[in-house]
Specification:
Length: about 525
């Protein structure tokens, strides 16, 4: 059986539509703020990855959200560009329609809560009122586009009979995709499979729409619930890169895609994702947000294809299939290799960057990265691919208001630490000299004096990029201000310099957070 869809035309029954909400649900989680240029960069990369639908934001939430959706709609071609809206919001649907006006293909995704708990305490509405809003919201969305999605917020905790009524009203009033989210990550795989099976069997017109699954990970079941939803008849999956999102996050795109691909015998479903780009996509998001994935993260964690046990190593050497159910290359991993040296030129450096997935780097970022590479090659015996990635990631961040120019440190067992710092703030040079209790403390005090702020240090963590005593340090700094959390990252062969880069990265992200309103918790 095939589905007819206003944006995709004929969709074969074995095809899964990948709906990425990294830029909406993922970005609204604590610490994961992105500016407009970073969102645009991510959207282009998601298109190259093969994502079918990009949920670009919640246009009515703030001027910044509206502008980011508008820019993505204007510049990104290929995927359907989607804007979120409340079904009964006063200006939500109009705002989404206007933000999406220039999109090649566009979708309005409207939602309202349907569970007894949400209707009573969040909406304070009777069920009949909710049904009226569903009808009105979908009719209004159809005035802007034929591609309309409707979501039952807290759908997994909604009474079955009422959920059927809601879905029927949404379909009758123009919805072409129906999303049933497990908003709070409460459901089990058996329950999600049963919900989709029930809706497809009971709701009139169910065979004319695509059902979608959006699962949160509060109990660690998001991916399992999503795969069970597919077995129940869902043909669209809502997910995020690295599984980022509210609270414990969303179902991870890379895990779902590779589960469907590796276990095609079980699910019989395919996606349009270019899987060798998964690792690069994961690393791009980590660079932009400042959040690394944990080492043992499936598919994209650095230990995902590492084998330390002697028995495992022996088996892999004889036949990789003994302990690897997919090849590292299929998701973008390559062997760590020695790369360029201090005598290498710019052309060779650019070629290496292209091999590592940085072909889109502009000349300014390329020149800055090349200068840092030459400095690193002078200081470090062996330069690895991961070293190159770390320094390029540092230089490819967009539109930072605060930039490090120079840092000088002196410290020791018999003297107090001193830091001399030079930075630019909105282009203006600031120079300070400060003492502290150790070099990191002195450096951080210098930043606070050069750029006064009230943010508090909530986390300071240092790890190595590669191996050896001359390895680059990768530092993570978390700042907290008025309930807002941001993480920044920095890398350098000097640990204190990497810490300063991370602190400044976090400050730049905090400035983005200050300028935008936080949308309410959604599905």
């Amino acid at each position: 059986m095939a589905f007819q869809h206003p944006s995709f035309g004929t969709v074969s029954d074995d095809r899964i539509i990948i709906f990425d909400t990294t830029l909406r649900d993922g970005e609204q989680s604590p610490g994961f703020s992105m500016n407009i240029e970073e969102k645009l960069r991510m959207a282009h990369a998601l298109g190259e990855l093969g994502v079918d639908v990009i949920e670009a934001g919640f246009p009515v939430a703030s001027a910044g959200d509206f502008e980011s959706v508008r820019r993505i709609a204007e510049h990104v071609r290929g995927p359907v560009i989607c804007g979120l809206a409340r079904s009964g919001g006063k200006r939500d649907i109009e705002s989404a329609g206007e933000a999406l006006r220039q999109a090649e293909r566009k979708r309005i995704h409207n939602f309202i809560s349907t569970s007894p708990l949400h209707m009573k305490y969040k909406l304070r509405m009777e069920p009949e009122t909710v049904l009226e809003i569903i009808a009105e919201g979908n009719r209004k969305a159809r005035q802007y586009t034929d591609d309309v999605e409707w979501s039952a917020e807290d759908g997994s905790r909604t009474e079955a009979d009422f959920l059927c009524r809601c879905v029927e009203v949404a379909i009758r009033n123009g919805a072409t995709t129906i999303n049933i989210p497990d908003t709070v990550g409460f459901a089990t795989p058996e329950e999600m499979r049963a919900i989709f099976t029930m809706l497809r069997e009971r709701v009139p017109g169910a065979d004319s729409v695509i059902f979608s699954a959006h699962n949160h990970n509060d109990l660690g079941l998001a991916v399992a619930n999503t795969l069970a939803s597919v077995e129940g008849g869902a043909r669209q999956i809502e997910c995020t890169i690295n599984g980022i999102g509210e609270r414990a996050g969303n179902a991870a795109l890379e895990e779902i895609v590779m589960a469907l691909k590796t276990r095609h015998d079980q699910f019989g479903r395919v996606t349009g994702i270019v899987t060798p780009k998964l690792l690069g996509m994961s690393r791009m998001l980590a660079t932009i947000t400042g959040f690394d994935v944990q080492p043992n993260k499936a598919i994209v964690g650095r230990n995902a294809f590492a084998h330390e046990s002697g028995i495992h190593q022996d088996g892999v050497l004889k036949n990789a299939a003994t302990y690897e159910i997919m090849t590292p290359e299929s998701v973008g991993w390559t062997k760590t290799s020695l790369v360029l040296g201090k005598h290498s030129g710019r052309a060779a450096f650019r070629d290496k960057l292209a091999q590592l997935g940085y072909a889109e780097l502009d000349d300014t970022a390329l020149n800055a990265a090349f200068a840092r590479f030459k400095d690193l090659a002078d200081r470090k015996k062996d330069v690895f691919d991961d070293d190159i990635r770390a320094l390029v990631d540092d230089e490819s961040r967009d539109h930072e208001r605060i930039r490090l120019i120079a840092l000088e440190l002196s410290s020791g067992t018999k003297q107090q630490a001193h830091a001399k710092l030079e930075i630019t703030v909105d282009g203006a040079v600031q120079y300070v000299a400060v003492s502290g209790n150790g070099p990191v403390d002195a450096a951080f005090r210098a930043i606070s004096q050069a750029f006064p702020h009230t943010a508090e240090l909530a986390l300071f963590s240092v790890a190595n990029v590669t191996e050896g005593t001359d390895a680059q340090a990768r530092t993570t700094v978390r700042l907290q201000e008025n309930g807002k959390l941001v993480d920044g990252q920095g890398a350098d062969a000097d640990t204190v310099v990497s810490a300063v880069r991370a602190y400044i990265h976090a400050l730049n992200k905090l400035l983005v957070k200050r300028d935008r309103a936080e949308p309410e918790a959604l599905n």
